[in-house]
Amino acid sequence: MAAIDDLISQIQDADLRDRIQKEVNKLSKQKKFGLVFEEHLPECTPLFDMPIKRGCNVMLRDNKEDKSIYVVMKIEEDKAICTKRDKQGELFTFSISDIVRAAEFGEPIYPYLKPLDSVCNAPDSELWHILIEADNYHALQLLEYLYVGKVDCIYIDPPYNTGAKDWKYNNDYVDKNDTYKHSKWLSFIEKRLRLAKRLLNPNDSVLIVTIDEKEYLHLGCLLEELFPEASIQMLTDVINPGGTNREKEFSRVEEYIFVCRFGDSAVIKHNDNMLGNTDEVNKSRVWYSFCRGNNLRHNHNRQFFPIYIDTKTRRIVEVGESADLTCSQSEFPQKEGLVSVFPINANGQEASWRGIPSTIREWVDKGYVRVSNYDKKNDRWTFAYIPSGLQERIESGEISISGKRDDGSLELEHIDPSLELVSPRSVWNKKNHNATDYGASLLKQLIPDHHFSYPKSLYSVADVLSFFVKEKPNALIVDFFAGSGTTLHAANLLNSRDNGKRRCICVTNNEVSEREANALFAKGYKPGDSEWEKFGIAHYITWPRTVCSIIGKDINGKTLKGSYDNSALSLSEGFKANAAFFKLGFLDNTKVALGMCFRELLPVLWLKAGAKGKCPDIENTQIPDMVFFPKNGFAVLNNEQSFTLFSEELISYPEIRTIFLTTDYEVNYRSMANNLNVDNSYQLYRDYLDHFRLNRGRN
């Protein structure tokens, strides 16, 4: 509406302007069911690595007020003559050092990954985690090229839009008094969720989003709209038992977690119900009530029938058949010497058993159902049974049978209470989810003197991930709002518990806090300067935390103390893991098409081939005709004239299962690929260029 109002104000004819304004006002008052918000275009990303040249879009590097996009008309030595893109005519002269290339939402970009650093604490492992410094929208475009439909779990903790100037939109802070702050936030999130959807495996994956009360209603509606095929639940997690001090309000202790499950994704049962205060926690229980007291007969008539017992031996002798609703209890067949027992609840109502007659007979034969006791108060016999989940554990051998009782029911060996599996509750009240003690304090141990507001509890993140990836030891986890790096830390913790090889890819921008930005501006530094960048979140918080948690030492080299959640795993041991740190940059598509960017794109090829082993590099600047990376499982042919030699040498590397073939012609690519015995092949550089030319923010 803001854009329409601006356009209407430019209409010269007063009568026409008023008539159009009235009609627009009528339309704006019409409501529809669902979420309504403006798309707020464009977002801009500074491209510090890209050269400034005639015809390109630029923006000022250090001006908080002027966020205009300028077009470079001419370059004279160290000056750029520009005009505003939306109001061409007036010319502006800027020093080239004061401006930066800018990419707007929807423009084609051609990304690459510039290696910044790495940490290797498991040289024998092929597993490498990835941290990418980037605007997450462009990083998601790259991840879509690499992993469409292959991601098992996405966990994000996006900005909560509290008005505390803790996130930026369109290169500026969204103020708490901004009339459009909810709409801007929704537009910001929606664009990223649409891309994220393409990454998830539609047959079995999960999207996890945390939020607080400022936007949870809007987010819930947005998720319902974007993911109609998903099963969506909202959990409540107590993260601050001390509460927040808010005058005239309740003291908030919780945040919310939206869980969107796709395909066959299911919550894995656990030995802890997460609620923390019921008798189900750490209690060994096998036998449960067999009468479903709340499921009345008129709704479940097939599960209403007599079970005949010998009251002297307390043995189930026979299971009867169900009848229609007109059949009273007295009309069911009687058995001489036996008592017929019906599912009657404590209120004397006809209820239902836990199954139909054929199922119950099978359970009785296997010893899963038994007579429990006689209820004198209500004059009825009761039964107990072993639920299907425990039956599966018995039949798999996980729970041992010590024999059978005289009544034919099973006698089980003692069950370790810690092995009893229950469904986690939708409200979590866990001591180790306290964000202060297990988020801020832990982070301070790793990187003392480096400030970061509101880090997540490590165990809160590890718990929610484990409910979906515990049985996926090779899961691919993505977090594109990485913040302090808790998700990668949690993935390492999960791997350490079961020797898993879950891989985590994290993305964060390199924004500095408002306080630090003001201090740096005062000293004459600008975004893109090395002094500025080293105080950004990626360099100052996320990567140092990743390194320190892996090697078991803080940022000053001191050995860490304590253990993870009172377990045998000490912080000083670190993790048998490896991680690589990259910065997302942008390439000239013409140079890519000419094959001049092989070295820059090598990390991208490494990721597309599975990120096995340490990211390779080539020392010389001359592009080789062919190159083989057996430790990384891929090879590249840069000169199709050398295909015969390439195919002959490839036979010597059976571990190479992915190849990249450089050719401009589809028919040549198909001919070469069909003659190679590999799992995956890709056409360079057409495959890469087509993806980023065509994928420009479309829905």
- Classified in CATH, the superfamily of the largest domain is Vaccinia Virus protein VP39
CATH architecture of the largest domain: 3-Layer(aba) Sandwich
What value does the average pLDDT take?
A: 89
Helix content: 25-40%
> Which consecutive residue ranges, at least 5 long each, have pLDDT under 50?
169-173
Number of E-type strands? 32
Tell me the span between the first and last alpha carbons. 21 Å
Structural class by SSE content: alpha/beta
What is the highest CATH level, the class of the largest domain? Answer: Alpha Beta
Q: What percentage of amino acids are in beta strands?
A: 15-25%
Q: Please compute the radius of gyration using only Cα atoms.
A: 32 Å
Largest sheet: 10 strands, mixed
Q: How many helical stretches?
A: 18
- CATH fold group of the largest domain: Rossmann fold
**What is the topology, as strand order, of the major beta sheet?**
7-28-8-27-26-9-12-14-13-25
Keywords:
699 residues; alpha/beta; SH3 type barrels; Rossmann fold; 5 domains; ten-stranded mixed β-sheet; six-stranded antiparallel β-sheet; 18 helices; 32 strands; 27% helix; 23% strand; globular
Protein topology:
Blueprint: H1 2-9, H2 14-29, E1 44-47, E2 57-60, E3 70-76, E4 79-84, E5 91-95, E6 99-104, E7 111-120, E8 129-133, H3 136-147, E9 153-156, E10 168-169, E11 172-173, H4 181-199, E12 204-211, H5 216-226, E13 231-238, E14 254-263, E15 288-289, E16 291-292, E17 307-310, E18 315-319, E19 339-341, E20 352-353, H6 357-366, E21 369-375, E22 380-385, H7 388-395, E23 401-404, E24 410-412, E25 427-428, H8 435-446, H9 458-469, E26 476-479, H10 486-498, E27 503-508, H11 514-522, H12 530-533, H13 537-551, E28 578-586, H14 589-593, H15 598-608, E29 626-629, E30 634-637, H16 643-650, E31 658-662, H17 666-674, E32 680-684, H18 686-694
Parallel strand pairs: 8-27, 8-28, 9-12, 9-26, 13-25, 26-27, 30-31, 31-32
Antiparallel strand pairs: 1-6, 2-3, 2-6, 3-4, 4-5, 7-28, 10-11, 12-14, 13-14, 15-22, 16-20, 17-18, 17-19, 21-22, 23-24, 29-30
Helix pairs in contact: 3-4, 4-5, 9-10, 10-13
